[in-house]
Design goal:
three-stranded antiparallel sheet; 14 strands; globular; Rossmann fold; alpha/beta; about 15% strand
Length: about 375
């Protein structure tokens, strides 16, 4: 596929990508708006590689999905600032037309801005020197040009700012050992890490190579200011090889939790009810991805070990344990209910005193769990 034909037809993968971004935008805005009302009274959505907004088959892409959600919400209509950039002037012209055709677009206090600029040093310096209002940055380049750790760090530095990047694994995999694009690879991974990768990847098989590359970019993003990083894998149409990774970066545990739930629901597969995130082949050599590949069987033992002798609410268990792991709140409630039924934990109030929903005993966030001390024999 050439860059010119990329927006001809929407694939299942591109629709899932757009839905993940649009759903997170809505949830993110709901979280930051109450606090933002006390200060700048603005939030922002920036898309640096926006495209025309609509595929030639008529499917709306991310810019229009975000604007449609903003039009539906009174607070967002008054607070949202949007900037859509693309280096292709034809895409920018088409995007302007498609935005203007949206029903209710004139109800937005701040008209969407469209820019035609190559993403590079000037934009990065502007972000670095500007105190940003709460901003969701979406970076979806065709390949890798313009994608850098400095760009992500320049946005993450300010409160309420999160980043989502669409990581073209195939192009970056080919680019790592291509001297012609060495500068771009160094900007993406950091020069030292990029050099280490070039040496490390030489003898590795394709599956291990992919995980090593994604682990490296995830760790680099943490160093750039992203305390929490969450990748999501996209396969090609046949499901035989990886094409892209959508990587979410945030400083907020709330944002991380929200995005994990969204990605889990968009996952094409599960194991024992745990979303796949497509990372089942990971090993201990990729610690972040390996932690994201654990099935539900592991969770019960982890909780009994890590919280032995503690009494906590379900919500406390969830927030103290789920970071860097694939589990969502529903997984914890399922496992804790099972442990309660097996008599391995004590729950207050117990099952017989809790409400039922559709015949199933509920496990509220405020339920208190006591984990027994474990003997050496049990361990």
């Amino acid at each position: 596929m050439t860059e010119d034909s990329f927006f001809d037809q929407s694939s299942d993968q591109s629709q899932v990508k757009s839905q993940i971004v649009a759903k997170y935008f809505w949830a993110w805005a709901k979280v930051v708006i109450p606090q933002t009302k006390k200060h700048a009274n603005k939030i922002a959505y920036i898309d640096l590689f926006a495209g025309p907004g609509v595929y030639k088959d008529g499917t709306k892409s991310t810019p229009l999905l975000v604007l449609e959600r903003a039009i539906q919400e009174p607070d967002m209509r008054q607070m949202l600032v949007t900037v859509f950039n693309d280096r292709d002037p034809d895409n920018v012209r088409a995007l302007k037309e498609n935005i203007a055709a949206l029903p209710g677009i004139r109800t937005l206090k701040y008209s969407p801005r469209t820019e035609n600029e190559e993403v590079g040093e000037r934009i990065v310096k502007f972000f670095e020197q500007t105190h940003l209002v709460p901003t969701l940055l979406f970076v979806d380049p065709w390949g890798y040009k313009g994608l850098s750790l400095r760009l992500i760090g320049s946005v993450l530095k300010d409160w309420g700012c999160d980043c989502i990047l669409f990581f073209n694994y195939l192009r970056i995999n080919m680019g790592l050992n291509n001297p012609a694009v060495q500068e771009h690879m160094n900007a993406l991974f950091g020069e030292a890490r990029a050099n280490q990768l070039r040496c490390q990847l030489e003898p590795t098989p394709p599956a291990v190579r992919e995980l090593t590359v994604v682990e490296a970019i995830s760790q680099a993003l943490k160093e750039a200011g992203g305390e929490f990083v969450l990748p999501f894998c996209f396969k090609n149409d046949r499901g035989t090889r990886t094409s892209h990774h959508l990587i979410f970066v945030t400083k907020s545990v709330v944002g991380y939790t929200i995005m994990k739930d969204i990605m889990a629901k968009e996952s094409s597969g599960t194991e024992q009810g745990v979303a796949s995130f497509e990372y089942s082949p990971a090993t201990a050599d990729q610690p972040l991805l390996f932690a994201l590949s654990r099935p539900l069987d592991d969770l019960a033992d982890m909780l009994l070990d890590e919280f032995a002798g503690c009494t906590m609410t379900m919500l406390q268990v969830f927030y103290e344990h789920h970071i860097g792991r694939p589990y969502v709140a529903a997984n914890y409630k399922q496992v804790l209910s099972k442990l309660e039924a097996e008599g391995k934990i004590t729950v207050d109030p117990p099952a017989e005193r809790r409400q039922k929903r559709k015949g199933v005993v509920t496990f509220a966030d405020t339920v208190r769990i006591t984990f027994p001390l474990r003997s050496k024999k049990q361990i």
